[in-house]
Amino acid sequence: MTYLIASNILLWIAFLGVTMVMLGLMRQIGLLHERSSPMGAMITDHGPDIGDQAPEFDLPDYFGRPVHIGGASAEGRPTLLMFTAPTCPVCDKLFPIIKSIARAEKIGVVMISDGAAEEHARFLRNHDLGQIRYVVSAEIGMAFQVGKIPYGVLLDANGEIKAKGLTNTREHLESLLEADKTGFASLQQFMASRKKNAA
């Protein structure tokens, strides 16, 4: 009988110990979640800023059709400029996601690339563009001062830059499109706001 009572007491002590450890872990997970940053697109360029009018360009796409970049959209809808390269493996994997998001969000997409002609031909053989326009131009990348790819710039229907950043994943792309809804056009803007509120 004494052994039974002792074992019950030890079991209760062990149970209370495990409960305390669980509560401590839950608290730490909550703190970690609160401190962790969102995984949005990160701005890495020094080009035209969010809120600025995008530089305007009139040039032909890969197939010779005229394309207007910047200024008011003829369709009256936002435009996503995606800076890519035909040899970029991340861009290659991201392309179906770009098409899917463009359809779902009803936005125009212009892919802006640079490189050798045979690389563009290979890329376009492997991918059906659908409604996406494909422009080969180093000049546009220089105007936006894009240093890393894939890089997205979201313009509103009037050609104003609403959001921009490095877009390696679907989450990064979607963060550009969420800019108007959240009021934070970039990850840096969100973090600055959190620091200001914490002070």
Automatic annotation (TrEMBL):
Protein's membrane topology: Single-pass membrane protein
One GO location term (cellular component): membrane
Transmembrane segments: 6-26
First and last residue of the signal peptide: none
Pathway: One-carbon metabolism; methylamine degradation
Entries under InterPro entries matching the protein: AhpC/TSA, MeN_DH_accessory, Thioredoxin-like_sf, Thioredoxin_domain, Thioredoxin_ResA/DsbE_sf
Keyword set, alphabetical order: Membrane, Transmembrane, Transmembrane helix
GO molecular function, one term: oxidoreductase activity
Subcellular location: Membrane
Domain Thioredoxin: 48-182
One Pfam family hit: AhpC-TSA
Gene Ontology biological process terms in this record: methylamine metabolic process
Biological function: May be specifically involved in the processing, transport, and/or maturation of the MADH beta-subunit.
Listed PANTHER family: THIOL:DISULFIDE INTERCHANGE PROTEIN DSBE (PTHR42852), THIOREDOXIN-LIKE PROTEIN HI_1115 (PTHR42852:SF17)
Protein's name in the database: Methylamine utilization protein MauD
